[in-house]
Amino acid sequence: MGIELICVTVPLPSSKLSPNASRVHYREKASLIKKQREETRLVALEAAYKYDQKEPITSAIVQIIRFNRSIRRTDPDNLIAQLKSTFDGITDAGVWVDDLDVVYLPPIQKKSAANPRVELWIRQSPGDTREMRERYFPGLEIVLDMVQPKLELQNQKPF
C-alpha cells in the first residue's frame, strides 16, 4: 500500500501571493511563484525520501496547518490560493500524480511566533475522489449533466 502519511513543511507564503494583493507587479509575482514552487519541490523530495515513498499518491487528502507569527488569521480560501505554487511544487516532486484529484480539508491555523510555517499533511485517499463525491453527494453528477448543456448554450455566441 505504501506510505500512510507524509508531512511537507514549507515557509509561510508571501502575502504578495494572496488573491487580495492587487498591487503586485506581474514580474515580481512570477518570481515569487517560481521561487516558492522550486523550494517546495526540494522540500517535498526530501519528505518523500524521509517517509520512504515508493510511488506517487494517486488521490490525496491534504490537511493544511498554518502556524502564524501572531494570532491573526488568514481567510481559509485565500490561504489555499496562496499555496497554489506550493501544490505545484509537490506535483513536480512526484509526491502525488496531479493536484487535480486532491481534497483539501479546511485549514487549521495556530500561533507559533518562534517557528512560523505551513505544514501539509498528505495521505492517500481511501477511495478515488470521484467515488467519494458520488458517495457523499449522490446524484450530483446527474444534476451537473443536466445543467451543463444549458450553460453551454447560454455561453454560445450568435455568430
Please describe what this structure looks like.
The protein has a single domain, classed as Holliday junction resolvase RusA (60s Ribosomal Protein L30, Chain: A, 2-Layer Sandwich). It is built from five helices and five strands. About 40% of the residues lie in helices and about 20% in strands. The mean pLDDT is about 85.
What's the quick description here?
The chain is an alpha/beta fold and 159 residues long. Helices cover 42% and strands 18% of the residues. It starts with 5 loop residues before the first strand and ends with a helix.
Give me the secondary-structure topology:
Elements: E1 6-10, H1 26-50, E2 60-68, H2 76-82, H3 84-93, E3 102-104, E4 108-111, E5 117-124, H4 129-136, H5 140-155
Parallel strand pairs: 2-3, 2-4
Antiparallel strand pairs: 1-5, 2-5
Helix pairs in contact: 1-3
